[in-house]
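Quick question about two entries, pasted in order.
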Amino acid sequence: MRRSTFLKHIKALEEEDLRSELTLLYDKVKEVKQFYMMEIGSEEDRKKRYQKGKDEITAKFRTKSYRKPRRPRIQKINKVIAELKKISIFNYEMIDIYLFSTETGLNFMIEYRFESVPLNNLILKSFNKAIEIIAENNMANDYGTRCKQIIENARSYYGITLALRMIYKRLY
């Protein structure tokens, strides 16, 4: 169905029919419910949803063995981030998610001495997106120390540290 057809359908409906239609969508479509939870819900509701996303990201990095750690589930982490991005109302709320993803990836690299191209790409891509949103919303003062700490934590991996510094210098 095209947008114009949909708009004609909506215009033809009475106010009560529109309300029942919205109620039906809210009950049947999970994404609609999540959207309204983020749009109309309280700050606490949004924080719960973002905390759930952080927990899912952490779970994708979890492994049992130090000797031979399981590779992190990068595709699933990207999927979690994409889902959060879809339902986020304000783009600056995603800064924390991107920085958390960067920090968790770095901690995994350091703790398990695990390095791979997909993990490096996740770290750099997440940090880059966070820096872009920080610059767009003029929030450099709010996240400056956290970004510096990320770069400091990556110091044992020269290639990543250099790339993170280059990304950071674009903003600061």
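Here is the second entry:
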Amino acid sequence: MGDNTAKNYIIACDLDGVLANTVKQTLRNIEEEKAIKKTNDDIKHYDLTIDLGLPQDYIMAAFRKAWREYEKIEPVDPNIPYILNKLREKSKIYIVTSSVGDDKEIIGWLKKNNIVYDKIIHVKSDNEKLDVEADVFIEDNPNLAVELKNAGKFVIMLKQPWNVEFGNNGIAFAMDWNELFNKINEKLS
């Protein structure tokens, strides 16, 4: 006998910085080319141009390279596959991203890391996430988190060095995926 309860809840999960540690791989790519040695902890702004002093198009090219070599990208948290499996028992998981990774690379990465999902929504810009119907949004972009909250969406921001100084502005913060899991369960129960 299967569980026939309808999956009513939709969890919209960002990709870069929430599931995939693309910043770490991008910083490695930049270090190889420019000898600028930085770690995730050195990145204090969502806009990497501020902390790296490099042009936006250069940084985007380094992100693009990271996705072309997606097998090198680590998950943000080793518990993600287990937690998403648990959440998927009662919810639909949408990966909602404006990543520079192409769909083939993103799907390859998700598969390699055993990450379950029901749908990928690849938007051209972060603002398009405002049009996605979901019960919970998991984000690391502090500016977008505020926009989502102001649009009446429930947002949990996964704590990253680039959103710490942002303050919470009434937005729920999670230190890691275990805390995120507990906050989502609170919200959905």
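Reply: Residues 30 and 62 are 6 Å apart (CA to CA). The mean pLDDT is 93. Hope that helps.
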